[in-house]
Amino acid sequence: MLTEVLIAPFTEFEFMRRALAAVIALSLGGAPIGVFLMLRRMSLVGDAMAHAILPGAAIGFLLSGLNLFAMTTGGLIAGFAVAILAGVVSRTTGLKEDASLATFYLASLALGVTIVSIKGTNIDLLHVLFGNILAMDDQTLLVVAFNATITLLVLAVIYRPLVIESVDPLFLRTVSRAGAPAHLAFLALVVINLVNGFQALGTLLAVGLMILPAGIARFWSRDITGMICIAVIAAVISGYAGLVLSFQTKVPSGPAIILVATVLYAGSVLFGSIGGLIRQMFPAPHLEA
Amino acid sequence: MAAQIQFRDVTLGYDRHPAVHHLNGEVPSGALLAIVGPNGAGKSTLFRGLVGILKPLAGSIATDGLDVRDIAYLPQTADIDRSFPISVFDLVGTGLWRATGFFGGIGKASREKIGQALAAVGLTGFENRAIGTLSGGQLQRMLFARVLLQDARLIVLDEPFNAIDAKTSADLLALIKRWHAEGRTVLAALHDMDLVRGNFPQTLLLAREPVAWAATSEVLTAENLLAARRMCEAFDDSAAPCVADDLPSQAA
Q1: How confident is the model at residue B156 (pLDDT cuts 50, 70, 90)?
Q2: Do residues A120 and A62 touch, judged by C-beta distance below 8 A?
Q3: Interhelix angle for A97-119 vs A68-92, to 10°?
Q4: Which residue of B47, B63, B68, B81 to mutate against A (max A Cβ within 10 Å)?
Q5: Is A174's CB within 8 Å of B98's CB?
Q6: To 10 degrees, the CA torsion angle through A187, A191, A197, A202?
């Protein structure tokens, strides 16, 4: 009975196996990025970027359908255009970076929705906004896996400067010039992983598989390595359980995955070993020294 | 002794307003120099220019053959995100950047070095503590440990003893003396005149413009300190462009 619910969907249906492979790849790439977004207080920047890349992805989508390669390329171009424009405006005028980013991502989102709704059908728009992980073909799966691999490789290269830049940016500036390139590479990884999540979760929820696991991890680990491991595990569990939920109940797959992650998050807020509410209510006795 | 740092008519500042105005002078290699002056005198600005964070508005600072990695800089308020989950051991270990760079491993020898640096600042046993749990004095000790590991030829300390108790100050001062004995060049911005008189052979009294720069006992005289205090702190938004370049004889 339990096997039937939890395992049979994946042994019986190929599209479920592909979907599972895709969420595992997304988790491996996206969750570590989410941890850094959270630690650098950029959680909402991830959200803003997800909206900013919409017109690029939409143009790619209209030119070649749900082709992840075209959408990734378009999304990267749009994402960098917005990030660079926002950076230029905030550096040359007095406007703060978050304010100029907000302007550009809203303009970009409006443009993206316009492009999709003029040129495509409502079905297309829904597809781009919410994704459909159950319609994953071989080529798309390969692109998702490729992007996740690239993410992990680049993250390994920039890991040390990225950590130092997060904790003590001035120190990094005085010993090395790696800070700015590492930050830019990190932004590129954010965009890559957002676009990667498009097919599975859609533009609006793509950031969810990055940020929610990071939030969960914060309640269970004090050090960054532990956080990254827990975030990846939480993302994989959310993806798997979300797919099962979606298969058994007809809840759309993307929202199902994020809802499962939300439940895990709520559980972590309550029961987390580090700063969880229950732990705060019943604190262990203080120590001698 | 060869000059380690040469200030050549340096003007440093923000938005064209000078915070350090027409500074000339040399710091010999191995010097132990105190920089003294009231708040707003340009001490931090001078350091920021020296370590390359701030570009001079005019003039130049020559650091004879020093790479950025040969300079260890401890800013006045360290821009550290104390909520970041990193241990004292790992943060002090970043001082080994010069040796490790992006990928270099932290081997057994490096671990011992980090342990020794922590012992030198009296933080043995704090290795696994998160940096957010340290007190202000402990944080400063930790940052000194990192400077220790940077093994730099030029060490720049911006008000290192602010809000630090006497015991910690004494411990950290001993480290500064050790660096001096090892032949490193040390510059420190300080407010405690007794501490400067007792420990620093050379002093630069700065009040935007250099008031005096010589042996400490000659610099820290009553009239010099009074002159420094009288300097104006506020920027004048309608100030005319400086013409001192055309009138070198009257610059002072």
Answers
A1: very high
A2: yes
A3: 150
A4: B81
A5: no
A6: 130
Nearest to B68 among A170, A174, A227 (CB): A174
pLDDT digits (tens, 9 = 90+) for A125-136: 677 677 778 877
Exposure of B62 by Cβ count < 10 A (0-12 exposed, 13-18 middle, 19+ buried)?
middle
> Which one-letter amino acid corresponds to residue B40?
G
Tens digit of pLDDT for each residue in B16-51?
888 888 899 999 999 999 999 988 888 999 999 998
DSSP B54: S
**Whether A138 contacts A84, CB under 8 Å:** no
Measure A38 CA to nearest chain B CA, in Å: 10
Task: Label residue A122 by pLDDT band (50, 70, 90).
Answer: low
User: What is the interface size between A and B, counted as CB pairs within 8 Å?
Assistant: 61
Q: Which of B73, B79, B86 has the highest number of chain A CBs within 10 A, making it the mutation to test binding with A?
A: B86
Which of B53, B80, B98 minimises the CB distance to A167? B80
Mapped to the 3 state alphabet, what secondary structure does chain A carry? CHHHHHCHHHHHCHHHHHHHHHHHHHHHHHHHHHHHHHHCCCHHHHHHHHHHCHHHHHHHHHHHCCCHHHHHHHHHHHHHHHHHHHHHHHHHCCCCHHHHHHHHHHHHHHHHHHHHHHHCCHHHHHHHHHCCHHHCCHHHHHHHHHHHHHHHHHHHHHHHHHHHHHHCHHHHHHHCCCHHHHHHHHHHHHHHHHHHHHHHHHHHHCCHHHHHHHHHHHCCCCCHHHHHHHHHHHHHHHHHHHHHHHHHHCCCHHHHHHHHHHHHHHHHHHHCCCCCHHHHHCCCCCCCC
CA distance A85 to chain B (A): 23
Rounded to whole angstroms, how far apart are CA atoms A26 and A235? 8
Strand order in the sheet with B3-14: B17-28, B3-14, B58-63
Phi and psi at residue A121, to the nearest 5°: -95, 175
Nearest CB partner across the interface for A174, out of B71, B84, B101: B71
Whole-angstrom Cα distance, residue A82 to residue A102? Answer: 10
Nearest CA in chain B to A179: B102
Using an 8 Å Cβ cutoff, are B1 and B28 in contact?
yes
Encode pLDDT of B95-105 as tens digits.
998 778 777 77
Distance CA B186, CA B201 (A): 11
Angle, alpha carbons A242-A27-A160 (nearest 5°): 155
Q: Where are the alpha helices (DSSP H) in chain B?
A: 43-50, 88-93, 97-100, 108-120, 136-150, 166-181, 193-199, 216-219, 222-229
Q: Which residues partner with B186 through β-bridges?
A: B32, B155
Determine contact, residues A227/A272, Cβ cutoff 8 Å.
no
Both tokens of B10, joined, read 């340096």
B142: closest CA among B170, B117, B175? B117
Q: Which residues of B touch A161 (CB under 8 A)?
A: 102
The average pLDDT across B143-170 equals 90
